[in-house]
Design brief:
Blueprint (H helix, E strand, L loop, with lengths): L1 H8 L2 H24 L2 H12 L1 H36 L7 E5 L5 E4 L1 H10 L17 H8 L7 E7 L2 E9 L4 E7 L1 H29 L8 H13 L12 E6 L6 E7 L4 E8 L17 E4 H4 L3 H4 L5 H7 L4 E7 L2 E7 L6 H43 L6 H17 L4 H10 L12 H4 L7 H7 L2 H9 L6 H9 L20 H16 L10 H10 L11 H20 L11
Antiparallel strand pairs: 1-2, 1-5, 3-4, 4-5, 6-7, 6-11, 7-8, 9-10, 10-11
Helix pairs in contact: 2-4, 3-4, 7-8, 7-12, 8-12, 13-14, 13-19, 13-21, 14-18, 17-18, 18-19, 19-20, 19-21, 20-21
C-alpha cells in the first residue's frame, strides 16, 4: 500500500487526477444528499450564467493536488542533491536515476563533470551506461525479482573504464557508477608483470634442463632472457625498455654489453668498459636496493639528468628520460625507458632479471670451473698412464688432435667431436697395470708377456668405470686395439660392432706409432706411414681399419702430418723414408 501511495504522489498529473476526482465525487455526493436533484439544476444554471467561475470551481480540486505533488517532488530532489553536496568526498563518481522509460531524471555534479570531459551532452547521459541499463525491458525484468542482486557491468569509454550498478524501485532505477580506470590500468600492469615473471621462470626452467657447461654462452643467454621479458613480439606492455646495459663486475675493469630492444627481437651491441671511478654513474645507485628514476622527479632539467650516465652509453642510446637499476652479486643491470613514468612494477621486473642473470652467470662460471677440473683430471690420468711407457706426453696430445681432425672430416656432430678430442688420450690408461719391464722391453715379447700386454684395454675400461662423462673414453680404451677385420684384441670383434670412436682412435694410434721411434723400429716418415696404413706392410693391413675412417685419413693425411710436426718430440730420431 505504501509503495502505491509513493508511486501516485511521485507523479503530479496522476495525483491531481485521483485527488481532484475524489474531491468532486465527495462534494457532489454531499450536495445531492442535501438538496437532491435540485442541486444539478442549480449547477447547470450557474454554468450557463457564470461559465468562467464554474470552470475554475471544477479545476481547483485538480490544480491544488498537482501543485502540491509537484512541489513535493521538487523538494525531494533538492533535498537529495543537498545531501549529496554535503558529503562530496563520499560521493561515487556517477549517480543518476532513470524513469521507467530509461530517461535520466537526476545526475549528480561529479557525473556532469565527467560527461563534459568525455564530450557527452547531459541530455544523452544515458549513453554513458551499458546498453542493457538503457533498455526498459531489461530494467523491468530485473525488477520482477525483488531478491535479485543489483545489475552490474563494466564498460570502456576511450581511456576510461567505469563500473556501474543498477537498483530498481517501483518508481525509478538508481544507477551508481565508479571510474575504475586507475584500477583497471593497475590490473593490466599486474597481469603484464605476471606474464613477464612467467616467461622468465619458464625460460630459466628450460635453460637448466638443457644446460651444457661446455657450450653455455652467458652473454647470449642474457640476450635471450631480455628478449623473453621485453620484446614486444614476445610480450606487449605499455612501456618496455628500449635498451638494457648489463655489466659484469668480476673483471678488472667493470664492463658489459648494451642490448637494444625492438619490436621483433633483442640484439647485442658493442662492449662498453667503464672507467675506474664507476661510483658517479647511475648504475651504482642500485647497489643495495633496486632503484627507478624519472627525470622529472630527480633533476632540474633533462640535460642535467644525462650526467648520471657513462658517455659511451649516452652516445649509443641518445637522450635518457628514465631508468631502473639493480646490482645482484657480480651483475649490475640498468634499463632505459621512454614514455610513461616508471613505477615499482618496473623495478620488480629489473630486480628479477638481475637475479636470474646473476644465477646464470654463476652457474656458467661454476660449470666452467668443473669442466676445467674434469679435463685436468683426465689429462693427469692419461699422463700417469704414459709414465712407464716409451711414449711421451706429446703422444697423447697428438692422438687427441688426430681424432678430432678425423671426426671433423667424417662430418660428425659437435658433441662427438668435442668428446673424442679429450677422450682419445685415455686409450692406453690401462697400461698402468702393465709392468714397466714389459712396456720398455727392447726385444720381442714372449707369449706370456704379450698376453699381459693385451689385457691393458680391459684394465683401462675398469679404471674409467661407468661415468657418463667418460663413456666414450671407456669404449676407446676397451676397443682401440680391435680391428675392422676381426683380428684384433681383446675380444676379436669386427666391423660396426666396434664403436666408431674406437675405430677412429685405432687408426690415429697406429699412425702416431709409425711416426715414432720404438725399441723394435725406427721412426717412419709421413709418406712411409701413409703407405703402411693404406697399402700394408704385412704387419699392418688396410683391412685392419674402418673403410670410412681410412677414406677420411687419405683425404686429410697432410693435416695429420702438420699435427705431428707441431707437437713433435725433439728427442725423436730422424724419420726413415
Amino acid at each position: 500500500m505504501d509503495s502505491i501511495i509513493r508511486y501516485i504522489f511521485s507523479r503530479p498529473p496522476l495525483t491531481a487526477l485521483l485527488v481532484g476526482s475524489s474531491i468532486h465525487l465527495f462534494n457532489q455526493l454531499n450536495l445531492y444528499l442535501s438538496f437532491g436533484i435540485l442541486h444539478y439544476q442549480q449547477w447547470q444554471n450557474d454554468f450557463i450564467d457564470h461559465p468562467l467561475y464554474t470552470l475554475v470551481d471544477i479545476l481547483i480540486p485538480f490544480f491544488v493536488p498537482w501543485m502540491v505533488a509537484s512541489f513535493g517532488c521538487h523538494i525531494s530532489r533538492f533535498h537529495r542533491q543537498q545531501v549529496m553536496n554535503m558529503f562530496p568526498e563520499s560521493n561515487p563518481d556517477i549517480v543518476m536515476t532513470l524513469d521507467n522509460s530509461g530517461a535520466v531524471q537526476y545526475l549528480n555534479k561529479s557525473g556532469e563533470t565527467l560527461l563534459k570531459q568525455l564530450g557527452i551532452d547531459r541530455s544523452h547521459a544515458a549513453h554513458l551506461l551499458p546498453e542493457r541499463f538503457r533498455t526498459p525491458a531489461s530494467i523491468d525484468s530485473h525488477a520482477d525479482n525483488k531478491n535479485q542482486n543489483p545489475l552490474t557491468e563494466s564498460i570502456h569509454h576511450g581511456q576510461h573504464c567505469f563500473h556501474f550498478s543498477l537498483t530498481r524501485s517501483d518508481s525509478h532505477a538508481l544507477v551508481i557508477g565508479h571510474d575504475i580506470s586507475d584500477l583497471h590500468r593497475q590490473y593490466s600492469r599486474l597481469k603484464g608483470v605476471v606474464r613477464q615473471f612467467h616467461n622468465m621462470t619458464e625460460y630459466m626452467d628450460g635453460t637448466l634442463e638443457t644446460y651444457d657447461p661446455l657450450h653455455f654462452d652467458a652473454d647470449e643467454y642474457d640476450r635471450l632472457i631480455i628478449e623473453k621479458l621485453f620484446s614486444k613480439n614476445t610480450i606487449a606492455t605499455d612501456n618496455n625498455p628500449e635498451h638494457v646495459f648489463l655489466l659484469d663486475w668480476k673483471k678488472d675493469r667493470p664492463g658489459g654489453y648494451l642490448y637494444s630492444i625492438n619490436s621483433d627481437s633483442v640484439y647485442r651491441r658493442e662492449y662498453i668498459e667503464l672507467e675506474d671511478d664507476v661510483s658517479r654513474y647511475a648504475i651504482m645507485s642500485g647497489e643495495e636496493e633496486v632503484v627507478f628514476a624519472n627525470w622529472e622527479d630527480d633533476a632540474d632539467n633533462l640535460q642535467d639528468f644525462q650526467n648520471r650516465f657513462h658517455p659511451q652509453v649516452r652516445h649509443q642510446i641518445g637522450m635518457i628520460e628514465r631508468y631502473t637499476t639493480y646490482r645482484s652479486g657480480d651483475i649490475a643491470i640498468i634499463a632505459f625507458y621512454h614514455g610513461r613514468r616508471l613505477d615499482h612494477y618496473d623495478a620488480m621486473i629489473l630486480k628479477a632479471l638481475a637475479t636470474f642473470s646473476q644465477s646464470l652467470h654463476r652457474i656458467a662460471e661454476e660449470g666452467r670451473e668443473t669442466e676445467r677440473a674434469f679435463l685436468y683430471t683426465v689429462d693427469a690420468l692419461a699422463r700417469a698412464a704414459e709414465a712407464n711407457d716409451e711414449d711421451t706426453g706429446a703422444h697423447i696430445i697428438r692422438i687427441n688432435e688426430y681424432a678430432r681432425a678425423l671426426a671433423e672430416e667424417m662430418d660428425m656432430d659437435e658433441h662427438f667431436i668435442r668428446t673424442i678430442h679429450f677422450s682419445a688420450q685415455m686409450h692406453d690408461v690401462g697400461k698402468v697395470h702393465v709392468s714397466p719391464e714389459i712396456l720398455k722391453k727392447p726385444g720381442k715379447l714372449t707369449d706370456e708377456e704379450f698376453s699381459k700386454m693385451k689385457a691393458h684395454p680391459v684394465y683401462g675400461a675398469r679404471i674409467l668405470g661407468d661415468s657418463p662423462r667418460l663413456a666414450m673414453a671407456r669404449e676407446i680404451a676397451l676397443y682401440h686395439h680391435e680391428k675392422y677385420n676381426g683380428k684384433g684384441y681383446p675380444h676379436g670383434i669386427a666391423g660396426d660392432d666396434i664403436p666408431l670412436s674406437a675405430r677412429i682412435v685405432a687408426l690415429a694410434d697406429v699412425y702416431d706409432a709409425l711416426r715414432q721411434e720404438r725399441v723394435y723400429k725406427p721412426a717412419f716418415s709421413h709418406n712411409k706411414a701413409v703407405h703402411v696404413i693404406t697399402e700394408g706392410d704385412g704387419r699392418t693391413l688396410p683391412g685392419d681399419f674402418d673403410p670410412q675412417v681410412l677414406a677420411a685419413f687419405k683425404r686429410i693425411e697432410k693435416k695429420l702430418d702438420q699435427i705431428f710436426q707441431h707437437y713433435i718430440d725433439p728427442t725423436q730420431n730422424t724419420p726413415v723414408n
